[in-house]
Amino acid sequence: MPCPYSLCPLSPNIMQLSKIGEFGLIKNIRTRCKNSSPDILTGIGDDAAAVKTIRGKGLFTSDILIEGTHFDLSLTTFYQLGWKFLAINISDIFAMGGRPDYFIAGLGIPSACRSRDIDELYSGILDIARKFNVKIIGGDTCSSERGLVLSGTLIGSGKKIITRSTARPGDGIFVTKTLGDSAMGLELLKKGGKKVQSFSNFTPRLKLIKRHLMPEPALIRNTSRITSMIDTSDGLFLDLGHICDESHIGALIYSDDVPVSPALAAEAKTAGKDPLEFALKGGEDYALLFTAPKNIRTRAFRIGEMIERGLYIIDSDGKKKPFKAEGYEHFKK
To answer: Are both 201 and 88 inside the same structural domain?
Structure first.
C-alpha cells in the first residue's frame, strides 16, 4: 500500500520490509540521513555513533527490547532482563573500542506490571552498571497497551574509535569467547518452559542459559592494533558479513578453529544437532569479533583471515565452501 503521507521518508517499494529485512531498512535510512558535519566521526552503520566533543570523542548507542519479540517474561526474571538491557548497550560501546559512561532508560510499562517488578528490573540494571562503572542519569516512563518495552541510550567515550569499515586483506579474524552458547541457552529455556530463578548451582546447562539471560560484555583493554570490530549479536556469519560489507573485502573461516564450549558440545550431542550451527548462526553471544594482524598477541581465538573477496569456510575435511552472511534478522520471515 502506498504511503499516504507526502513526506514519508520511505518509498512504497521500500515498505516491503519482509523482503529487504532489518539491514536493508537500515541501509535505506542511512542513505537518507547522510550528514557531512565534521563533528560526526561515525554515523549510522556501526555499533555506535562517534561524535567529536569538547573532551574528545563521544560514543552514542541505542537499543530497544520489546516483550514478545526480544524476551518472554515467562522465561526471564525482571532482574535478569534489567541486566541484559544494559549489557547489550555496553557491548556496543566496547565494540567501538570505547568505555561506557552514562545510561538513559525509557520504559513502556503495561498495567500488569507491579512497582516491585520495576524495582527488580532496576536492581539488574544497577548491578551491571556498578560492575562497569556506568551512571544512570535519566529516562522516561509511560504506559504500554501491548507489553513491556525497554529503550536504552548509552553514552560512552573513547580515544581510538574502531569501526567495521577498516579491515584489510591479510588481517586475522578473532573472537573473544566461545560462540553459540546463548542460542543453545534459549533453546533449553524454551524446552524447560519456566524461569531460572538462581544460578547458584552452576551446572553446564545453567551456564548456557545464563549466557542467554545475563550476557557478560567483553572488554579488550589494548585495542591499538585492532583494525575493525563488531559484537556478535546476530550470529558470526551475519556479523562478519557486516565487516566485509563495510570494508569491501571478503573472509575465510576455519570451522575447526571456531570456539565451542564443552557445555554446548554436550547439549548439541544429546539433541542430535551440530554445535557448529549454533556457533556460526546463533546470536546474542555478545563476544567481540575483530580483525587485526595475524601475529597480534591476544587471548582471543583466531578463526580465520580477511581476503580480497568472497565469503568462505573450510570444513573439518579441508573443503572450502562459500557461506552466506545469514543469522537473525528482524522483519525477514
So the answer is: no
Strand partners, 56: 53
Helix ranges (H only) for the chain are 17-32, 78-95, 115-131, 181-192, 204-213, 236-247, 262-271, 275-281
CA geometry: angle 154, 157, 160, nearest 5 deg = 135
- Please check whether residue 14 lies inside any domain of the structure: no
Kindly report the CA angle at 140 between 137 and 142, in degrees rounded to 5?
Answer: 160
The reported pLDDT for the residue numbered 5 is 28
CA dist., res. 136 & res. 133, Å (int)? 10
Give the mean model confidence (pLDDT) for residues 44-63. Answer: 78
Range of the structural domain that residue 225 is part of: 172-322
Is the pLDDT reported for residue 13 higher than 60?
Answer: no
Regarding whether 296 and 205 lie in a shared domain, the answer is yes
> Are 180 and 306 in the same domain?
yes
CA atoms within 13 A on the CB side of 150: 27
Please indicate whether residue 6 or residue 228 has the higher confidence score (pLDDT). Answer: 228
Indicate the number of domains in the chain.
2
